[in-house]
Design brief:
It is a single chain. The chain has 251 residues and is α+β, with helices and mostly antiparallel strands. The chain has two domains: 19-123; 129-244, Sandwich (Immunoglobulin-like), CATH 2.60.40.150. It is 43% helix and 29% strand. It has helices at residues 20-123, 185-188; strands at 131-141, 147-157, 164-176, 179-184, 196-199, 202-210, 216-226, 233-239. Strands 3, 4, 5, 7 and 8 form a five-stranded antiparallel sheet that branches. The chain has a three-stranded antiparallel sheet with strand order 1-2-6. A hairpin with a 5-residue loop joins β1 (131-141) and β2. The radius of gyration is 56 Å and the shape is rod-shaped.
């Protein structure tokens, strides 16, 4: 330590001996403190990591449980939806089947009513139109282009004691471009078509018509002639209108 004496202008320097052992202890203590601080930080970090890991494991387990619960609920919801859809589809199919059966039954009822009316008309002795009668004439397209199937029903009304026999003639009114044309049965009837009849109560005749490609049919006239009584004949004209294909007669 430097001391300044009175009356002197120069500072006197005093040298103090250094304690090396003290300095060494200080260095050792300082190093130990640093090492302890590092160890404390490491231990604290390990503890923090373990706590975070434990918390994350708990969170993971909780989330896994929640996912399992939600997955179970989702499967249950899907199963319920599938059952609902299946029930709805079955209900719709059942309703459609019932509707279809009702339509079929109504169709059968209409056919039966028509058949009853037909037989009554054949057997009714008080009918206005007696003798040979054209009851029905149907047309339907076949699978061949320009070919059409026909079905003709003839009846004998009133006196059914004897058979009647004869021929059927067909006349087709059509257009060819801007011109009106008339075609006879021999022009359009396909081979094998039935045109002769012989019956007591009623008879059904079937056949096919083949029309040229440039012909547009409009009307067809059916004439039935009783060969036993040349003066007895009946005639009806039908608009050319195709029915739905049904039965073997439609080809």
């Amino acid at each position: 330590m430097a001391k300044k004496r009175p009356g002197s202008s120069v500072d006197d320097m005093v040298l103090v001996p250094v304690d090396r052992r003290r300095r060494r202890r200080l260095r050792v203590y300082g190093s130990l403190f640093v090492i302890l601080a590092v160890l404390a930080a490491f231990v604290a970090g390990q503890v923090s990591v373990r706590e975070n890991t434990s918390r994350m494991e708990r969170d993971r387990a909780r989330l896994a449980t929640e996912v399992t619960r939600l997955d179970t609920a989702l499967r249950a919801a899907r199963n319920e939806l599938a059952l609902h859809r299946t029930g709805t589809e079955v209900s719709q199919q059942a309703q459609e089947q019932v509707r279809s059966e009702i339509r079929d039954l109504r169709g059968q009822l209409a056919e039966l009513e028509e058949a009853v009316a037909f037989y009554k008309s054949v057997m009714a002795p008080g009918s206005v139109e007696q003798g040979l009668r054209i009851e029905k004439f149907d047309l339907a397209a076949t699978s061949t282009e320009g070919e059409f199937a026909f079905r003709l029903v003839l009846t004998q009304v009133g006196d059914n004691r004897n058979n009647i026999a004869g021929d059927v003639l067909l006349k087709l009114a059509a257009r060819k471009g801007e011109d009106a044309v008339q075609l006879s049965g021999s022009d359009v009837l396909a081979e094998g078509s039935e045109t002769r009849f012989r019956f007591r109560y009623f008879q059904e005749l079937t056949g096919k018509l083949r029309l040229p490609a440039d012909i547009v049919p409009e009307q067809i006239t059916v004439e039935a002639i009783n060969s036993a009584r040349r003066n007895q004949k009946t005639e009806k004209t039908y608009i050319w209108q195709l029915q739905e294909r049904s039965g073997a007669w439609a080809g």
